[in-house]
Amino acid sequence: MSGMLNLFTDPNLQWILIGSMLLGLSTGVIGTFAYLRKQSLIGDTLAHAALPGICIAFMLTGVKSVGYFMIGAIVAGMIATVGISWITRHSRIKQDAAMGIVLSVFFGLGIVLLTQIQHSSYGNQSGLDKFLFGQAASMTASDVYTMTGVAVLLIVACALLFKEFKLISFDSGYARGLGFSVTALEQLLLWLVTVAVVVGIQAVGVVLVAALLITPAVSARYWTDRLGVMTVLSGLFGALSGAIGTWISAGTDQLPTGPLSVLTASALFVASVLFGPRRGIVAKIVRRYSAKKEWAAENGAESLPESKTGSSVKDREVSA
Amino acid sequence: MSGFWIMVTGALVASCCGILGCFLILRRMALVGDAISHSVLPGIVIAFLVSGSRDSVFMLFGAAIIGFVTVFLIQLFQNSGVQGDASIGVVFTSLFAAGVLLISLNASQVDLDLDCVLYGEIAYVHWNQLMINGVEVGPKAVWLLGITLFLIVAVIGLFYKQFKLCAFDPALAAAIGIPVALFHYVLMGLVSMATVSSFESVGAILVVGLLIVPPATAYLLTDRLGTMIGLSLVIGVISSIAGYYTAAVLDASIAGCMVCVAGVLFLLAFLFSPSHGLVVRKLRQRASTAREAY
User: Fold this and answer.
1) In this predicted structure, what is the pLDDT of residue B283?
2) Per the CB < 8 Å rule, is B93 touching A319?
3) Cβ A108–B255 below 8 Å, yes or no?
4) Are B30 and B259 in contact (CB under 8 A)?
5) Residue B250 belongs to what domain range?
6) Which of A48, A241, A249, B200 is the residue whose CA sits 20 to 30 A from B132?
7) Are A3 and B54 in contact (CB under 8 A)?
8) Residues of chain B with confidence (pLDDT) below 50
9) Residue A289: which of A304, A272, A267 has the closest Cα?
């Protein structure tokens, strides 16, 4: 338990805390747009697509440097985003399948390259996997500086291009009509996501970085109908889950920060689904109940069974 | 002999995934396979902790249960209004995080290798032989996948019309009295089964690759569902055989090479498909503008 209090005094833990919060904040903000553009799983795709980039960076430089790995991962991620847009634009394949294709082919290529590295004389490659599985607990001051830079970059970019991103999230046809270069904006947004994902991989690993993008954004969607509020809320949810994850992790010996942050975000998500003011399950039940009562009061008690069957038919439709 | 069994395993995985992938792509749920293959982690860990053995039967059982839980949760959130892709993402990352936590909580007892669980090695398939009365009757994985394939073919074959209608027009299917939700769960159950029985021997990434890439390639080549399934099977089997030989030449990961070959085939179809290919469409466009100019 003492670890939890140490959080405010131990400088090492403070770095991790600041790093996780900044990471959650920036991925939460950028994830809002990915969610609204129905590209929630782009984080998963880009995280997997980073592998060949990391391998090539290692093969070219021969050093295990996080800086080179990040450049390689970002370049690979950017190529992957171009590939996804290309496939969806020039064929009838839908976005989800395009993401799946890019994800698996890039990762397959990455595994081929990884085995090549293992079988050749590049020496010890163990650091490569570590980069992929993420180690938030080993975050240092320099990592936090990188994250601060990235967070500032992402938030400033989102603030400056807020109107444009809003347009392409809701009505890209209208944006095109107004004369915006929708393709360029979409690509820019995807590249910003790539940067966020690559920084996130380092902290929480390939699989869990997807959660940092999606979960806060989906949770925020339950509380508001305004994009500005949703973006801010999503950033706050991200930062909060990062902070709570670090806090719990500091209190125990062996629990890693990344999964704890993700589970905190999931808990926030479940709470939002249940208690969101208008879309939440509880609010819906209350609304249905009061509507039923109103209906009964208006039409007398005998028509109640009818309204019951009506609602169950509707339920079936929704579930179908 | 090992090469033969590896190719048989690859071809079986490709067949299982090729059939189901067609329906997933049409229903725009391509990434469900990816989600299931990741979220089975806690199931494997729990099975390991409960049984205390690394016997694949227990692990398979645990993985299968969690696979169904994943499918159920995705559907639950979707019904309560969460966007489909987001619901997939939230569920599988949460389950995976829970799995990682379980591993680190019991780090002293669990010597499960994360990479090994998720990125199984197809090259070792023939080491794990099934023994009946002391006679080797082929690798366990081949039997398991064979049974899975048989089940998939039987279910899809029996209810082909219903699955087809649900894939293209769920509203019409519901209107004429087909239990759409039931067929959805049956399809997802089959995907979960295929994923779980494949990933132990070939790794999650090959499952995801073969579930999406060959059906997507076939989708670019034809407009008929029956033909699409057939083509997807052929493409999957070609990828696994060609992938094996490529891996032998390059001395690289077999599963990785199989996915890469599938990717190359997809690229070829993307560019040169007679009906939907990029190059062909461009040529046709040019020809028609030239005709108009006359």
Assistant:
1) 87
2) no
3) yes
4) no
5) 2-293
6) B200
7) no
8) none
9) A304
Q: What is the pLDDT of residue A310?
A: 47
Integer CA distances (angstroms), B23 to A30, A36, B49, B166, in order: 32, 25, 36, 9
Residues with Cβ within 8 Å of residue B139, at least 6 apart in sequence: B5, B9, B125, B126, B127, B128, B129, B130, B201
Tokens 């090994």 -> residue: B116
Q: Which chain A residues have a beta carbon less than 8 Å from that of B205?
A: 48, 104, 107-108, 111
How confident is the model at residue A216, as a pLDDT? 94
Q: Which tokens in the block code for residue A188?
A: 């820019």
Of B89, B96, B101, the CB nearest to A255: B101
- Asked if residue B205 lies in contact with residue B119, where contact means CB atoms within 8 angstroms, the answer is yes
Q: Find residue B139's DSSP bridge partners.
A: B129
According to the model, what pLDDT value does residue A125 have?
54
Other CB atoms within 10 A of residue A118 CB = 13
For B:22-51, CB contacts with A below 8 A are 25, 28-31, 33-34, 38
Strand (E) or helix (H) holding B28: none
- 3-state DSSP call for residue B129? strand
Contact B155, B186 (CB under 8 A): yes
Query: Dmax of chain A from CA atoms?
Result: 85
CA distance B3 to B139: 12
Domain count, chain B: 1
Kindly report the CATH number assigned to the domain that includes residue B253: 1.10.3470.10
Give tens-digit pLDDT for B210-240: 899 999 999 999 989 999 999 999 999 999 9
Burial (0-12, 13-18, 19+ Cβ within 10 Å), A21: buried
pLDDT value of residue A270: 92
Burial class (CB in 10 A: 0-12, 13-18, 19+), B106: middle
- What gap in Å lies between CA B14 and CA B247, rounded to an integer? 17
Per-residue confidence of chain A (320 residues) as pLDDT tens digits? 445 555 566 777 788 888 888 889 999 999 999 999 888 888 889 988 988 998 898 888 877 777 888 889 899 999 999 999 999 988 888 888 999 999 999 988 988 888 888 777 655 555 566 666 666 556 667 778 888 888 888 989 988 998 888 888 888 888 888 888 888 888 899 899 999 988 888 778 888 888 888 999 999 998 988 999 999 999 999 999 999 988 888 877 677 888 888 999 999 999 998 888 888 888 888 999 999 999 888 887 555 454 444 444 444 444 44
Domain ranges of chain A: 2-279, 283-319
Q: Label residue A220 exposed, middle or buried (CB < 10 Å: 0-12, 13-18, 19+).
A: buried
CB atoms closer than 10 angstroms to residue B283:
11
Q: What is A2-279's CATH number?
A: 1.10.3470.10
Mutate to test the interface with B, among A112, A215, A223, A237 (most CBs of B within 10 A): A112
Instruction: Give A129's contacts in chain B (Cβ within 8 Å).
Output: 115
The CA-CA-CA angle for residues B157, B144, B119, to 5°, reads 110
Q: In 10 A of CB A286, how many CB atoms?
A: 11
